[in-house]
Amino acid sequence: MIKIAVIGAGNGGQALAAYLAFRGLDVTLYNRSYKRIAPIIKNGKIRMEGYIQGEVRISSATTNIAEAIRGRKLIMVVVPAFAHRDIATKLAPHLEDGQIILLNPGRTGGAMEVRQVLRRHNVTRNVVVAEAQTFVFASRMSNPGVVKIFRIKNAVPISALPATRNDELREVMRNVMPEFEVVPNVIYTSFNNIGAVFHPAVLLLNAARIETTAGKFEFYLEGISPSVAKVLEAVDRERCNVMAAFGVEPMTAKEWLNYAYDVLGKDLYESIHNNSGYQGILAPPSIVNRYILEDVPMSLVPISSFGKLFGIDTPTIDAVIQIANIMMEMDFWENGRTVISLGFANATLEEITRFVEEGEL
Q1: Which runs of E-coded beta strand occur in 209-311?
Q2: Which of 186, 287, 333, 361 has a CA positioned 20 to 30 A from the CA of residue 144?
C-alpha cells in the first residue's frame, strides 16, 4: 500500500486526508498548529459530510513534519500557495529518495518555486516535485475533524517538473486518485490556473457586500452577475494569451467547467450558474482571505509577469492586482511570484520550455 502524508489541515487538507482514508489508504496528517488538529490527534478520526458521508480513521495526526513524512511515498501539500516556500524549507532536511511532493494546487509557478527552494537548500535526495492545476474538491471545514465535500471534480490535471518524471508520477497516482490526469508539463497546470479567474475579481467586485454581510451569500451563484462574469472573461482571455505564448492550447474557463463538472452554457455566466457544485458555497466572511492573499500574488502576478516577459498585455489582470494592492494596503508585485523570483529574469521562451521539460535552464 502506498503511504501518504497530507501537509496542511485546513478546508482542503482535512477533506483530502479523509477521502484518501475513505479509499482505504494509509494517511498521516500534518499541521503546524496544534489547535486545528487536536481532536484528530486525540481520536484519529475525521467525519465527512455532504457528497460523501461517514467517519474515517487516519494513521496519525501531528505537528512534527519529519514524523508526518517519514516513510511516506507521496507527500500531498494542501496549503495556500504563499506557504509553499515555507513548507519546502521545512521539508528539505527530511526528504527521502523516491518521494513525490504534489502541490494541491500549485497555482502559477508552484512547482518551479519549490524546486528552487530545494536546490537552494542543497537537497540531493531523488524526489519528484509536481503540481495540480486546481484542488480536487469544493470543500469546507465546519469544525476541526469535520469536513463537508460539496463536489469532487471529474478530473484534475497534474504534472511533474521536469516532465521527464511524469511516468513516475502517473504510476503512483493511478493507485491513489483516479481523478488526477497527468498532462504533458507544468505549463498546462500553472497557466490553466482557473482560481486566477474565479477568485480575486469576484471577491473584489463583491467587497462591499462581503464587508456588510460577513459573506452571507453564495459566492459563485450570487456573487457572479452577468457584469462580473464579463470581467472574469477578460481575465480569462489574458491568461489564455499568456499561456498560448508557450505554443500550448489553453483551456478556457468555460471549457474547464465542462471538463471538471460536466456543465455547459452559452457563456461563462451561464456555465457557472449551471454548476450544482457551487450551490451552498458561501462567500468568505472577510476580504482578508486567500482568494486575495494567495490568488493575487501566486496566480495573477506570475501570469502578468510572464506576459510582460513575452510582450503580452494583461490590462484587466493588472487592474485587479492594483485594486487588491489598494484594498489590502500591500504590494503584491513585491511579494508575489515573478519571472525574477522564479529565476527566469533573463530567460528566453525556449530556455523556460527546456527547463519545464528537462529541468535544466
Answers
A1: none
A2: 287
